[in-house]
Amino acid sequence: MTKMEVIAVQLEPNSSHPLVWLKDKDQKVFLPIAIGNFEAVAISIALHDEPPPRPIAYDLLCDILEGFDVHVEQVLVSALRDETFFAEITLVRDGESICIDSRPSDALALALRVDAPIFVADQVIEVAGLSVEMQEAETPIEDVENIAAFIRSAGKGESTEEAPDQVTQQVDALKARLQEAVALEEYEEAARLRDEIGRLEHSIEK
What we know:
Blueprint: E1 2-11, E2 18-24, E3 29-34, H1 37-47, H2 57-67, E4 71-81, E5 84-93, E6 96-102, H3 104-114, E7 118-120, H4 122-128, E8 130-131, H5 141-153, H6 164-183, H7 187-205
Parallel strand pairs: 4-7
Antiparallel strand pairs: 1-2, 1-7, 2-3, 3-8, 4-5, 5-6
Helix pairs in contact: 1-3, 2-3, 5-6, 6-7
């Protein structure tokens, strides 16, 4: 498993659903996870150290754990099944530990409040992580403009069956732009590019 940290909460541009972004310490792996609106607010509050006027559920949970002398040892994004992420919270009391099943959003909201380490299972990173080669040069702007033109024309005229090599090249170019966007912390753009890559790759598989 890989130790990661929460770096941002952004709206996914196509659906306006919140995404929480995690990264490893070397900024080579990024992981976006879709979460609910309430959880997005709770994570943002903790991430930016802006406590609400009244305690919300996560703050209350922290007080309860502290009152019972329970320590949050770590949280783990443990699995991804049927496009759903799963997590575990490890609690310790009197030297004994217990793992609690959790949604990733709840686990992350709690971890940020108690400064607990956050880990992601290797198999989750393999499936959903975005790998970034930081030493790669930035994509030239003219290439980005060509990508945008291709996106606008997709499905209007030439089919992917007629030019699979061209589609593959565009997917590769989009992936390069995705790496650049993540490296520059342009998370909304990264989410848009990720969705477009998925759409094109799906069209190739048909």
